[in-house]
Design brief:
The chain is of the alpha/beta class. Helices cover 38% and strands 18% of the residues. The protein has 13 helices and 12 strands. It has helices spanning 3-8, 60-71, 94-103, 114-123, 159-173, 191-205, 217-229, 241-245, 247-257, 266-270, 281-296, 318-324, 330-335, and strands at residues 44-50, 80-86, 109-112, 129-134, 152-157, 179-184, 208-213, 234-237, 261-263, 275-278, 313-317, 338-340. The chain has a 7-stranded mixed β-sheet with strand order 7-6-8-9-10-11-12, with helices on both faces. Strands 2-1-3-4-5 form a 5-stranded parallel β-sheet. Strand 9, helix 10 (266-270) and strand 10 (275-278) form a beta-alpha-beta unit. The longest helix has 16 residues, at 281-296. The chain is elongated and about 65 Å long.
Length: 341
C-alpha cells in the first residue's frame, strides 16, 4: 500500500465533519429545541452531501445529528429517509456528487464542510441547504449571517478569527518560540485570509512565520524536509480535511523532532498533538437538526439567521508536553477544558 493510499484508508467520515467547521462551538448547547417537530404520518426524504466515503463508519458528529433528529421525531426507517451522496474523498468529485443528490429531489440537503456547501450551492438554488461550513460570508456561501438569503442557512465557523487566537495560545504555551511553521492548503477557500490574519498577529507577538503549503502528500513530505533543515520552534496547523487526514503523519514528525503543535480539533490531540483550540463538533451537528426541523415545517432558509460559535474548548495533551520536556504555564492549564494525561 502506498503512503497516499494509507492516508486515505483512514476513516474519512471524520474528516469533513471537522473540515470547515473546525473550531465551532455554540452558546446554545445541549439539545436543539423543537420548532414544530415531525408531523404524524408524514415521511421525510432528505439529502446528505459529504466528502467522506459513504461506506466508512459514520462519524460521531453524524451520529449526534441523527440522534438530535430523532429527538425531534424524525426516525430513520420510520418516517425519515436519508439519501447519501459522497465525493469519495476526492474534492474534484463534489460537483458531481451534489448534482446527483439534487437529482433525487430531497426536501433539504445537509452539506458537510465548506467545499461541500459551495458545491451544493452551485448545484441548486431551490432545494433548502443546511450547511456546516467555515466563514460562510467570507467564502461567499451566504450574503450575511443575519439574513443569509437564497436557499442556505445553518452553522458557520470563524476560522479567520480563530487561527490568530490559536497562534496566541501556542505562544503562551511555548514562550521561547520565535519561529512558527504554518501548515495550510493553497486551495482551501479561506486559508489565504487566515494566513493574512495570522501574519498580523505574529508581528504583534514578535514571531516569524514559515508557511508551508501541504495540499498534496508530496507537499507535506517536502515541508517535513525543509523543517528538518531549518527547524521551527513550533507548528500551527490550519484546519482542512487534508491536514486532518495527515494528522498521524504530522504527529509522528513532531514527536520525532520534539516540536510543540497547535491544531483545530481534538482528534489531532488524541493522535499525539500538543494542543487544540476549537469547538465541540457533536454539539454543532446536533444544533443543526433544529434548522432542518424548521425548514421541513415550512420555514424559509433565507430568513433563518446563520449561527456562529461563542464558546470554544482548549485541549492539552500533557503526555505530549512531558515527552517534549515542555512545562505548560499553570494559567494555561487552568483554562483548559480537557487535559489528556
Amino acid at each position: 500500500m502506498t503512503l497516499r493510499q494509507s492516508l486515505f484508508s483512514n476513516s474519512a467520515a471524520r474528516i469533513m465533519a471537522l473540515a470547515g467547521v473546525a473550531l465551532l462551538a455554540l452558546s446554545t448547547l445541549s439539545t436543539p429545541t423543537a420548532w414544530c417537530a415531525a408531523q404524524p404520518g408524514k415521511v421525510y426524504r432528505i439529502g446528505y452531501l459529504m466528502f467522506a466515503p459513504v461506506a466508512d463508519t459514520p462519524s460521531p458528529q453524524r451520529a449526534a445529528l441523527l440522534r438530535a433528529m430523532e429527538r425531534l421525531g424524525y426516525v430513520q426507517g420510520r418516517n425519515l429517509l436519508i439519501e447519501y451522496s459522497s465525493a469519495e474523498a476526492n474534492v474534484e468529485m463534489l460537483p458531481d456528487a451534489a448534482a446527483d443528490l439534487v437529482g433525487k429531489k430531497p426536501a433539504l440537503i445537509f452539506a458537510i464542510g465548506t467545499p461541500t456547501a459551495l458545491a451544493a450551492k452551485q448545484a441548486t438554488r431551490t432545494i433548502p441547504i443546511v450547511m456546516f461550513a467555515a466563514d460562510a460570508v467570507a467564502n461567499g456561501i451566504v450574503a450575511s449571517l443575519a439574513k443569509p438569503g437564497g436557499n442556505i442557512t445553518g452553522v458557520s465557523g470563524a476560522q479567520i478569527k480563530l487561527s490568530p487566537k490559536r497562534l496566541e495560545v501556542l505562544k503562551e504555551a511555548v514562550p521561547r518560540a520565535s519561529r512558527v511553521a504554518v501548515l495550510y492548503s493553497r486551495v482551501h477557500p479561506s486559508h489565504a485570509q487566515e494566513l493574512k490574519a495570522i501574519s498580523s498577529r505574529a508581528r504583534e507577538l514578535g514571531l516569524v512565520l514559515q508557511p508551508f503549503d501541504v495540499t498534496r502528500v508530496e507537499d507535506l513530505q517536502a515541508a517535513f524536509s525543509r523543517m528538518s533543515a531549518r527547524r521551527p520552534d513550533a507548528i500551527l496547523v490550519l484546519f482542512d480535511y487534508r491536514t486532518l487526514i495527515y494528522r498521524q503523519l504530522i504527529s509522528e514528525f513532531v514527536a520525532t523532532n520534539r516540536l510543540p503543535t497547535m491544531f483545530a480539533t481534538r482528534e489531532s490531540v488524541d493522535a499525539g498533538g500538543l494542543m487544540s483550540y476549537g469547538s465541540n463538533l457533536e454539539e454543532m451537528f446536533a444544533r443543526a437538526a433544529s434548522f432542518a426541523d424548521r425548514i421541513l415545517n415550512g420555514a424559509d432558509p433565507s430568513t433563518l439567521p446563520v449561527e456562529q460559535p461563542t464558546r470554544f474548548e482548549l485541549f492539552i495533551n500533557r503526555r505530549t508536553a512531558r515527552t517534549l520536556g515542555l512545562q505548560i504555564p499553570e494559567a494555561l492549564l487552568l483554562r483548559a477544558n480537557v487535559l489528556i494525561e
